[in-house]
Amino acid sequence: MSLYRNSAWFLKGLTEFTRNAFLSTSKRFVEKDLEVSVAGRAFMITGANSGIGKATAMAIAKKGGTVHMVCRNRDKAEEARADIVKESGNKEVFVHILDLSETKKVWEFAEGFKRKFKALNVLINNAGAIMSQRDVNAEGLEKSFATNVLGVYILTKSLIPLLEKSADPRVITVSSGGMLVQKLRTGNLQSDRGRFDGTMVYAQHKRQQVVMTEQLAKAHTNIHFSVMHPGWVDTPAVANAMPDFHRSMKDSLRTPEQGADTVVWLAVSEAAAKNPSGHFYQDRKIVSTHLPLAWTHSSPLEEQKLMSLLEDLAKTFQPH
């Protein structure tokens, strides 16, 4: 990654991704955008037991939505569910246990969900993983790729028929501003060549999520797709995966609720659905997916190649 790209990103972050930046930019938010009831609408949120995912689940539950929390750890999920039900007074909150790094299980979960539930209005792909060292899952796939990219692809693709049958369907993926330092690369999806740098691998996955969103939006025009950057947020995941960054920036990090604001806006507001599908958002606004002069643009051929590789991998592990 170029020094220029890194420096430009950090300067952008200091002015746009912090808590103060949120407090400043939120003054232009239209309050009535979120003054809606979503009773009768069903929302699936991955990684919903802490951080941005839990804050999103809480906000949607308070607006009357049916919430499907998809989490890896049952104890943490049940504890989060109890908090959400108690604070929101909404009992339509359901826990589903799934580790998105277990590729075959993602397929099995999605197929089972479609059999059991008749509607899903909004899918929020929030769960993510940053690995400190390279590790593989039972299928031999690098675990953070399996979670951040292939798991998101399989879950989304498998649930598309159910979303298409539901009213005003939307898919929102929580990416990261870190993707701005990465150009799409499809030649090392398993990160098995060169030194493994978990933070940069994660940033590449977040670039792949942006490309995936753009491509799925073109292919499925009756679903509203969006991808977003929550800003720099104080979450357990950030504290664990990037302790130095967390320690040095702690006083400037956003709360999980501030980080979740644009996710909730994209999920429930009428204003969001009026925007074209397939865009990248920051603080309720469509923003560029590239830093100026950073040479991170990819060709349509490369983007198509990513989708073909994901489709082939997904099919390989699809239960028959």
From TrEMBL:
It comes from the Eukaryota. Coiled coil: none annotated. Transmembrane segments: none annotated. Pfam families: adh_short. InterPro entries: NAD(P)-bd_dom_sf, SDR_fam, SDR_member_12. SUPFAM superfamilies: NAD(P)-binding Rossmann-fold domains (SSF51735). PANTHER family: DEHYDROGENASE/REDUCTASE SDR FAMILY MEMBER 12, SHORT CHAIN DEHYDROGENASE_REDUCTASE. This is DHRS-12_like_SDR_c-like domain-containing protein.
